[in-house]
Amino acid sequence: MDTEYKFFADRFPDTPGVYLMKDGRGRILYVGKAKKLRRRLASYFRNPAGQTPKTRALVARIRHIDTLLTATEKEALLLESGLIKKHRPRYNVVLKDDKQYVLFRLDRQNEFPRLSMTRKVVRDGSVYFGPFTSATAARTVWKLLGKVFPLRKCKDTAFRNRVRPCLYHDIGQCWAPCVKDVDRDAYAEMVHRVEMLLSGRSLELVDDLTRQMKAASRDMEFERAAEFRDQIRAVRKTVEGQAAVIHDNRDRDIVGIAENGQGLGLGLLFVRQGRLLDQKQFFWPGLTLEEGPEVVESFIGQFYGPGRFIPSTLVVPMDLEESPLPEVLAERAGRNVHIVVPRNTQEKQLLGIARNVAARSMEVRETITSRLQKVLRLPEEPVRIECVDASHLGGRDMRVGQVVFEDGRRNPDASRVYAFPDLEGAGDDYAALAGWARRRMESGPPWPDLVLIDGGRGQISAVEKGLAECTEECGWELASIAKGETRRAGELGDLIFRPGRKNPMPLKPGSPELLFLQKIRDAAHRFVLGRQRKARKKAVLSSELTSLPGIGPKTARILWDRFESLDDMLEAGPQAIGALSGIGPKRADKIHAALQALKTSRES
């Protein structure tokens, strides 16, 4: 029986840790951290009249509280952040748009540095510039810089193994240091100019380029002067729209919050080298300014995760001095990070801009997942949808592919493929789906709000059978999608089935809800087929590789760990092979000779 939760303070320790509030079905409603667990939990059950609407709704649904003890508040913060990202509890501040933004990476440790775009920061001596919330804008800038600053474009693997210049050299956008004798000082000077531009020293760079253009013109070197002219134009075009808002040339992000009647908005400004580079909005419905400190702290902990660029200063609207966040961010960034309130007039003005950005944010009232909840008659909005598709090749290589969509967008990192060697030769999709259900239960949370199965009523029954064999009650909502009368791919009238119903759900052909479910099903179908083909191709290539003299299974594994494909191995030189762990120069020569013999036999 679902009874109201009774809180007893003496059941909880007064030490640092994390608490997980759960409902009657064992689902996590809220994850929080505390320096003193007993005191923090007791605050939820005192004076309900003084609580915010969100807290009152949360407390009303609590049926159980689990705690995880930690040695320090910092460890509690890290554990809380990981649990929120994994479980995405309903009453937590969860980032729906937590993707890594585009950065420019300049690998200064290389003799001939390359400017590339990335979404992850790695401590490898490279310098990073950005972020850009728009990948299209970043790509436009990268192409513009590539036209007038001809740095190399190829990756290190191709750079080391290239034997002739690439197309970029032919069109004048690369000096081809891979195969040509390039002046290292001239290349370093060009890298320095790119770094000045991306570091915000554009005015200084324009002045320097202007002096060099005039000097080249006086010396009658008009082609060289034209190159400087083009670089000046590119610099000016690159910094268009970046307003100088502060004049200390430091990197800082500014966080502002505002309540707008529908909920709480958060505005984030990216200021790089004193210039306003970009901005971003976030919104959480139903929250008020009273939850502001919790929102800001939780947002910073999730947004500035490992691999993201973290500026040296974060300007926030309230004091967070007692928070362990600065220490956590310093470890992630590899340097000191300061979280401060506005310290001067310029920072106060920037905070005002961030607050205005936050005030303009609002909730998108009707999302595709909320519409699915209505048409499929689900008890809750399907925030996390897992779609599975069973596939085999003539009864062999039975696989079940699983793709995940969260908040209407695919999460590629959560994709999984399950192999069933015990079903080899059987071609039994139903047995594979039942096996998938059992193994999915064993893998643990986060649990799906909806499981979409490629198939009809029989496929749903198979998954139900697999779930029934598990002792833990999961409460998953199931649906299946089957092709319509013509059985053709892309048909608008696919059929959606739910357990306990003989007839399909009344979704209109071509409706947004049906098209979205088709999109999910197609993603699962492509994923499992791609994995099947890749596994079979790798098996064939591995067999072809191990048939060569001097290459056994262990050596083949070393080569596959280093090279992405067999073609890359065939193009590699003896030095690249000899640099691998466990392979010396003499053995590298033998392996290279064997690979070249294979290459010759392929070409003949």
TrEMBL record:
HAMAP family: UvrC. Belongs to the UvrC family. Residues 14-93 form the GIY-YIG domain. Keywords: Cytoplasm, DNA damage, DNA excision, DNA repair, Excision nuclease, SOS response. The gene is uvrC. It comes from Pseudodesulfovibrio karagichevae. Residues 254-465 form the UvrC family homology region profile domain. Coiled coil: none annotated. This is UvrABC system protein C.
